[in-house]
Design brief:
Helix content is about 55%, strand content about 15%. It is α/β, with parallel strands linked by helices. The chain binds zinc ion.
Length: about 180
């Protein structure tokens, strides 16, 4: 391997540690990618479902933290679909857990060349949600899931502001 190639390989691991030893778990509607058990456990602790959603989760067979997170994600996605009254066929999205907003900013900068201070974002081209576990809350995850559902539902992508309004609508209603 040439030195330049090696540097590219090494640098990508330095800048994207989530790619190192990333685990992937699949649910009905999502593929979840995370780099450590701690990240997954922290994420699970931060995603608190309201009473109605919790009742749904309790009915399913949960053994591991991963099971619990996947059931929570599917429950949130189904609720978001109901809020939007949009049920796209073959809905599937990827969710990548990142440690903090600095990681989110780094990934965004790499993909789009812009500096941002986002806690999460949805990549339309990759159909992927990148989210900071340090900052995550149900409302933030629901907002990004809203973007993913809207993206799958429309054959012609709605204007950016409309996309954003619909995601905000999910964010506001998710705890009802
Ligand atoms: Zn948004």
């Amino acid at each position: 391997m040439s030195r330049i190639l090696f540097c590219i390989a090494l640098c990508s691991f330095l800048f994207f540690p989530h790619l190192l030893m990333a685990k992937e778990a699949k649910s009905r509607y999502a593929s979840l990618q995370y780099s450590s058990q701690k990240l997954l456990t922290d994420f699970n602790a931060e995603i608190e479902l309201g009473r109605n959603l919790k009742a749904f989760v309790r009915k399913t067979n949960i053994v591991t933290v991963e099971d619990e997170v996947l059931v929570k994600i599917d429950t949130i996605i189904e609720k978001a679909e109901t809020i939007l009254e949009m049920f796209p066929d073959q809905l599937h999205m990827r969710i990548v857990l990142l440690e903090n907003s600095a990681d989110v900013a780094r990934v965004f900068k790499e993909k789009y060349g812009k500096n941002v201070n986002y806690l999460a974002f949805y990549s339309l081209s990759e159909d992927t949600i990148y989210i900071s576990v340090d900052d995550v809350k149900l409302a933030i995850l629901a907002h990004e899931i809203g973007h993913a559902i809207v993206d799958h539902y429309f054959k012609v992508r709605p204007p950016y502001n409309v996309h954003e309004l619909m995601a905000q609508f999910v964010e506001k209603r998710i705890s009802d």
